[in-house]
Structure prediction request, 331 residues.
Amino acid sequence: MNYVFNREQITAIEDILERDLMDLGVHSVFLIDMAGNIIANKGTGEDQHDIYSLAALAAGNFGAVSTMAKLIGEEEFSLLFHRGQKESIHFSKVTNDFLLISIFGKALSLGFLRLKVAEATDKIVPILGS
Amino acid sequence: MAIVNLKKGEVQAKIVYYGPGRGGKTTNLEYLYRKFHDRIKTEMVTIKTHGDRTLFFDFLPIEIGKIKGFDIRIQLYTVPGQVKYDATRRLVLRGADGIVFVADSLVIRRKENVLSLKNLADNLATYRKSLVDVPIVLQYNKRDLEEEGIPLLSLATLEKDLNTQLKAPSFAASAQEGPNVVKTMKKIIVMTMDSLRRDLM
Prediction:
């Protein structure tokens, strides 16, 4: 299945990423599909991440963890998160086909981020389906 | 699963190099990385074991320019070829828009080629797809070894073993030396773009 996103859809998703996550202090956020393609992304411009490689690895990582969950009898793990010294990365499934990846620093608590990611996800789902 | 972004005027598509272990999938991507270094802004990503075998995948994004006004970004992946890595192979195959099957021309690898092609069909089936649904190009690799006197399968034998039913475009190639590596990539990109255009029209 292929996805075509028009200007309005991409703009609406970028606005949600900006208002709900970037304004919160997230350093970089991107919406990707499970094949590792990027649909939308926002960043502070300070960090020059290689976002295409990150997306490919994030999709692979999420797929690997999901398969591990199934092997031990879990439908999925509710939290997928890697903590670094300065930067951390949080994965959230949006739908079966899409993932939201957030990169954030120490100033932001994981709990608050998860809450805001959930809110953003609820807003993004209808746009992806429209 | 290609993504068409009408705001950026960009198409992203995923092409997966599949085939038996030690067949030259990674070597194909390494050659392309060297050849098109000026067009590739990032490092090639590889997830390898200590023994230098592909553990999960290699990843190489290439911008190939514009087609009908759209910037085309192709994401090249390899799967791990070793039999034991079937679960990760299946993950990498997810959302593939085109496939290059890299067959090993060595006589002693004849059975592995056939088994790997069958494994590809089985893994596509888990995504409710078959070999005829996805654009595919066959590459008969390691042809350069013939000059060194190493016994190779004839092209006719490889065609009979792997391409009797598929009738896919095929290339005799050497990923190590370069002949037909770029042609293989160009062919799968053209076929993938044609397939996308048909799907989206």
In short: Helices of chain A lie at 7-22, 51-71, 110-129. Residues 81 and 90 of chain A are 4 Å apart (CA to CA).
